[in-house]
């Protein structure tokens, strides 16, 4: 079979995630014909303004995965968060390869390495939703609001969550 | 591709009464490929990976994926003990998993637990007694033989203790059962009278001393003595390792010739040639770590798979699929700058308008502080935080390339 290392490893991760999923997380390839394109659903963490929301994201894997990390992007919009670009792209240290630290704030140990996994990424994203890192604001407006007008930020997040659920 | 769920995986244990074997199996798997360790090697920071996996990581990044300390291929050492653990576990896995699953099914059917286990126990006991008799008399009778025979008789004595736990009533592993008084050679599994085993074993010993092709059934009993006996004998028949090449000092054509000399495809641009050579070197050298090296023909097929999935025949050019490639050792700066020429020009023009000095600020000493180096970002004037803190840099935007180019 001409399956590459990347495909086989993604099979393993897929199987692992479907038999033993972490709480609040679902993920898998959109079609088993293309293991390099996944969709994930993440529940908003409890006791945060994101609680009750379900956020869909796409994960795109490079051909040399797991040497290089995937990219992750929330789809459908509505994630108002300091570490999520307005277009939905997630900016979090685990998705950055170790050589690549333009801001000099990330510890190498937090960044991507071939022993990380989709599961760890999604768990990190969940905790990122709960605890934004305003040292690397991907969405500067959201970061400013989170820092200076927390109540307004939380209200906006709650509104977006409701909108996302069609309420 | 729907064999996803047929891939054996540590999660197979989770739904059985033996769920604690899941972490055990995980620890026998490489963290990079998630497969069982294949030719495991240990790094100088004491982490174990498949030879091929760690070689690929090191040639991409030069760091251990587990702890990120710098390491070199040359420092990798084979980890025989782990290989034997994996071989032994893989051998036992199907029967243990079957047993665990049938136990699960039995529990699900809600059968009484009193009757069957008792039956089983009796059966196992019988088997144990039957087996124990054989080697025990043997080892006593021949204790004065060479160390080798004592070794093997010890192995045989271990067997009966292990086997009954693994055996399922109907699925006994026939190899170890003395049917009609014959026993199997622990190395080649040929059946013979028990008296004949030890003389027969010395044949295998001779075979090992004179290098011949590996036995068809590798791991199992024979591997118990693998490290001490096979280890030192290996270098003689090992293919020679390929040295790393400093690609930057090679012209396209001399690199092409090197690939031709190695017998691998030599088409494509220099960057592809480099990547192909690196992959070949990794495949080849990982194969050198194997107890039973594959033939070059098989390695060439593996290179062909690489070519289709990541190399010149890959659907998407992987070199530019992620921004991270900018950081790779084999990153082709020329091709990148050709592809992004327009972007660069536009950005440079924008930046010049703002400030001549700032564009050159990546030259050491040209700007007084490093925080100022971060300032010239023509694209994101609105993103400067109110408190004037450090600007965030997005590796995906072109802003970064300004710095790359002038640096």
Automatic annotation (TrEMBL), chain A:
<keyword id="KW-0808">Transferase</keyword>
<protein>
    <recommendedName>
        <fullName>Ubiquitin-conjugating enzyme E2 2</fullName>
        <ecNumber>2.3.2.23</ecNumber>
    </recommendedName>
</protein>
<dbReference type="InterPro" id="IPR000608">
    <property type="entry name" value="UBC"/>
</dbReference>
<dbReference type="InterPro" id="IPR016135">
    <property type="entry name" value="UBQ-conjugating_enzyme/RWD"/>
</dbReference>
<dbReference type="InterPro" id="IPR050113">
    <property type="entry name" value="Ub_conjugating_enzyme"/>
</dbReference>
<keyword id="KW-0833">Ubl conjugation pathway</keyword>
<keyword id="KW-0882">Thioester bond</keyword>
<keyword id="KW-0067">ATP-binding</keyword>
<dbReference type="GO" id="GO:0061631">
    <property type="term" value="F:ubiquitin conjugating enzyme activity"/>
</dbReference>
<feature type="active site" description="Glycyl thioester intermediate">
    <location>
        <position position="91"/>
    </location>
</feature>
<keyword id="KW-0547">Nucleotide-binding</keyword>
<dbReference type="GO" id="GO:0036503">
    <property type="term" value="P:ERAD pathway"/>
</dbReference>
<comment type="similarity">
    <text>Belongs to the ubiquitin-conjugating enzyme family.</text>
</comment>
<feature type="domain" description="UBC core">
    <location>
        <begin position="5"/>
        <end position="166"/>
    </location>
</feature>
<dbReference type="Pfam" id="PF00179">
    <property type="entry name" value="UQ_con"/>
</dbReference>
<dbReference type="GO" id="GO:0005524">
    <property type="term" value="F:ATP binding"/>
</dbReference>
<dbReference type="InterPro" id="IPR023313">
    <property type="entry name" value="UBQ-conjugating_AS"/>
</dbReference>
TrEMBL record, chain B:
<protein>
    <recommendedName>
        <fullName>Postreplication repair E3 ubiquitin-protein ligase RAD18</fullName>
        <ecNumber>2.3.2.27</ecNumber>
    </recommendedName>
</protein>
<dbReference type="GO" id="GO:0006513">
    <property type="term" value="P:protein monoubiquitination"/>
</dbReference>
<feature type="region of interest" description="Disordered">
    <location>
        <begin position="108"/>
        <end position="155"/>
    </location>
</feature>
<dbReference type="GO" id="GO:0097505">
    <property type="term" value="C:Rad6-Rad18 complex"/>
</dbReference>
<dbReference type="GO" id="GO:0006301">
    <property type="term" value="P:DNA damage tolerance"/>
</dbReference>
<keyword id="KW-0808">Transferase</keyword>
<feature type="domain" description="RING-type">
    <location>
        <begin position="30"/>
        <end position="68"/>
    </location>
</feature>
<dbReference type="GO" id="GO:0006281">
    <property type="term" value="P:DNA repair"/>
</dbReference>
<dbReference type="InterPro" id="IPR017907">
    <property type="entry name" value="Znf_RING_CS"/>
</dbReference>
<feature type="domain" description="SAP">
    <location>
        <begin position="247"/>
        <end position="281"/>
    </location>
</feature>
<keyword id="KW-0863">Zinc-finger</keyword>
<keyword id="KW-0479">Metal-binding</keyword>
<dbReference type="Pfam" id="PF13923">
    <property type="entry name" value="zf-C3HC4_2"/>
</dbReference>
<keyword id="KW-0539">Nucleus</keyword>
<dbReference type="GO" id="GO:0003697">
    <property type="term" value="F:single-stranded DNA binding"/>
</dbReference>
<dbReference type="InterPro" id="IPR006642">
    <property type="entry name" value="Rad18_UBZ4"/>
</dbReference>
<dbReference type="InterPro" id="IPR013083">
    <property type="entry name" value="Znf_RING/FYVE/PHD"/>
</dbReference>
<dbReference type="InterPro" id="IPR003034">
    <property type="entry name" value="SAP_dom"/>
</dbReference>
<feature type="region of interest" description="Disordered">
    <location>
        <begin position="204"/>
        <end position="240"/>
    </location>
</feature>
<keyword id="KW-0833">Ubl conjugation pathway</keyword>
<comment type="pathway">
    <text>Protein modification; protein ubiquitination.</text>
</comment>
<keyword id="KW-0238">DNA-binding</keyword>
